[in-house]
Design goal:
alpha+beta; 2 domains; 23 strands; about 30% helix; globular; binds glycyl-adenosine-5'-phosphate; EC 6.1.1.14; Anticodon-bd; ATP binding; cytoplasm
């Protein structure tokens, strides 16, 4: 595994690196920002896209028992009645009688306001779903909700997907998309926000096989994070106590990561039983049972759900990759991302901006662009450019120098070892693939 000297870093360090290098900016910053809302910059968008692509590849493209969908954020309001979200998707809210700040009751330690010491009013249940209106009339019959989870689209499309894809149980439906929750206390950078992206998969199975599938998907989830470089000692699987289970779940466990403020959830793997399909069948009047033609019996499938946050996972990858080497002005900040998670896999750095080098450097860049996510950087000194690429975690830098014009060779510099090797341009693609493969193997958490 790539050597990391640091066991932990502060969130402030990451927030400032994220802004400086174009990972994450505060939303609407020129207007003073919108609290707890974040925008991904040119580097961050690549990181988050890679996280989502890695998940989609492992979950959908590399398996023949999971298919994908991309459903709308707005759904029929009855979906949220049937799913229980309208009644039960609430947090207990208390308001200070003095300063009128509001808190989640289960997140405060004590009976008085942590800000001003004032007394709290009676707690009330606050529904986390955002409401809006569909069409030009703003009355209750036009109320629709921004989905608080992507999962419900998999349940209401169960029959459409099963019949059109001809999948037999057990099989899963996966989706990546935005969800919205009007969290009472968002915070910790992109960890808890009101708009976020989820990567969820509903795995439909025969009743009685659900416990085994729950075990299978818990192991799969832990392995997935390790495969893409999160250190094993920073991960744990925490089984929910009975009193914290979501309203739909028979058993749940969280994959947790050790964030700078403590352990926090990246993913929940739940055994949702037949709760959702039965609830939608009852509310819609549509039969959502399945005929098992091998067993010659009809049943309502049980569902096991791995539900992961894309933003939280991207944050965990960022924090876990952070490392510092050396001290003082010689200190090197390096993000030791797995090559499939790194925003860019390779950067092409011409030694000088001179016209004599640029055409060759551009030719090398074009060659690499076809196969890798590559960046071209010809500003500032070569040393500074290496540092910049280290700070965004680019595994390999390819330097084009004046000798290249004579020997048609370039230098590959490795992010982790800082070793440099000279290779002919003709062999460059193969040499890069080989180094990336070695780094992939080294990165396993
Ligand atoms: N369909 C089940 C479900 O939504 P969840 O545990 O509420 O389960 C799944 O959410 C994942 O979505 C969480 O593990 C987390 O990574 C992410 N998530 C949930 N709320 C979030 C928020 N307010 N901000 C960022 N990510 C969030």
């Amino acid at each position: 595994m790539a050597k990391r000297t640091l066991t932990g870093t502060t969130l402030d360090t990451i927030v400032s690196l994220a802004k400086r290098r174009g990972f994450v900016f505060q939303s609407s910053e020129i207007y003073g920002g919108l609290s707890s809302v974040w925008d991904y910059g040119p580097v961050g968008v690549e990181l988050k896209r890679n996280v989502k692509d890695a998940w989609w590849k492992s979950m959908v493209r590399e398996r023949d028992d999971v298919v994908g969908i991309d459903a709308s954020i707005l759904m029929h309001p009855d979906v949220w009645v049937a799913s229980g979200h309208l009644d039960s998707f609430t947090d207990p809210l208390v308001e200070c009688q003095e300063c009128h700040r509001r808190f989640r009751q289960d997140q405060i330690e004590g009976d008085t306001c942590p800000d001003c010491g004032g007394a709290f009013g009676e707690p009330r249940q606050f529904n986390l779903m955002f409401k809006t209106f569909m069409g030009p009339v703003e009355d209750s019959s036009a109320t629709v909700y921004l989905r608080p989870e992507t999962a419900q689209a998999m349940f209401v499309n169960f029959e459409n997907v099963q019949t059109s894809s001809r999948k037999k149980i057990p099989f899963g439906i996966a989706q990546i998309g935005k969800s919205f929750r009007n969290e009472i206390t968002p915070g910790n950078f992109t960890f808890r926000t009101r708009e976020f992206e989820q990567m969820e998969m509903e795995f439909f199975c025969e009743p009685g096989t659900d416990d085994d599938w729950h075990d299978y998907w818990m192991n799969f989830s832990m392995d997935w994070f390790k495969k893409f470089g999160i250190r094993g000692e920073k991960l744990m699987l925490r089984v929910h106590d009975a009193d914290e289970l979501p309203h739909y779940s028979k058993a749940s466990a969280d994959v947790e990561y050790e964030f700078p403020w403590g352990w926090g959830e990246l993913e929940t793997i739940s055994n949702r039983t037949d709760f959702d399909l039965k609830a939608h069948a009852e509310k819609s009047g549509k039969d959502l049972s399945y005929f098992d033609d091998q067993k010659k019996e009809r049943y309502v499938p049980f569902v096991v759900e791995p539900a992961m946050g894309a933003d939280r996972s991207a944050l965990a990858f960022l924090l876990d990759a952070y490392d510092e080497e050396g001290e003082g002005k010689d200190m090197r900040v390096v993000l030791r991302f797995h090559p499939d998670i790194a925003p860019f896999q390779v950067a092409v750095l011409p030694l000088s901006k001179k016209d004599t080098l640029s055409p060759t450097a551009r030719r090398v860049y074009d060659l690499l662009l076809a196969n890798f996510n590559a960046q071209y950087d010809d500003t500032q000194s070569i040393g500074r450019r290496y540092r910049r690429q280290d700070e965004i975690g680019t595994p390999l830098c390819v330097t084009v120098d004046f000798d290249t014009l004579d020997d048609d060779s370039v230098t590959i510099r490795n992010r982790d070892t800082m070793e440099q090797v000279r290779v002919p341009i003709d062999n460059l693609e193969a040499a890069i693939r080989e180094q990336l493969n070695t780094m992939r193997a080294d990165c396993q958490g």
